[in-house]
Amino acid sequence: MIDARGGGLGRRAGVGAGGLGLTGVLIVLALQLLSGGKFEVPDGFDPSTAITAGSAPAPSSADEDSLAQFSGRVAADVQDVWTDVFKQSGESYRRAKIVRYSQAVSTDGCGNATSAVGPFYCPGDERVYLDMSFYRDMRTQLGATGDFAWAYVIAHELGHHVQNLTGTFDEVRKLEQDDPSVARGAQGTSVRTELQADCYAGVWAHAAYGFGQLEKGDLQEAITAAEAVGDDRLQSRSGSVRPDTFTHGTSAQRQHWFQVGYDSGKPSDCDTFSPGEI
Ligand SMILES: [Zn+2]
Prior knowledge:
Bound molecules: zinc ion
Distance between the termini: 35 Å
Strand content: 5-15%
Number of domains: 1
Helix content: 40-55%
Order of helices and strands: EEEHEEEEEHHHHHH
Radius of gyration: 17 Å
Shape: globular
Structural class: alpha/beta
Number of strands: 8
């Protein structure tokens, strides 16, 4: 695991975001386009509201170190599951790197990001960037249950990595070039991409937890918390609300698709791009 904590940029680190679009029937995903043609998949926040990052490095605490271990364990477990899944299809899974950060981080593939973006995956450098302050907010709100919510967030981000490896992102990019409007809206490729990542998180949970061990309430709480924390952060830190409430789908949609992956354990069931309503 790479530790980029304390890497405050000390200046405004804007992350450009561009719309993708959605297509009538055949669908794909949503990517956030950066001005340089690179994109990232931020989670929970509108990256256009990136805030000024503080320059003081985040102090490293024992609590944070154990969190680092926990995050590393979860990420390794999720990637072990995907290694097996890929192997079953005769493919090999290329592991993503996990980077922890606080306040701000400079990426190789997606420019600079601040904690306003939250946890995100950068397809350009195949890294998952975990915002530690996001975890702390969630833990404060949820207590011990926050750890499951955090694990879900990590699994969701690695779900985006899977989408990158399987070529889904490329398909979306092609669609977007044809019609930049396909990403938007409640049925757009952006939402479908996010819901598929939720479903992929469910695929991991299927392998990680025995059937029936996860209560519906656990999941609901985790997803609600992740969203609530995201909204709270946006509003408190930038003074503005998230403009696109459809980016991740509704809570009910997210729970539904996580459940689909959790029940079957098969990524092929995560067909959020099939024609029709999601
Ligand atoms: Zn996502």
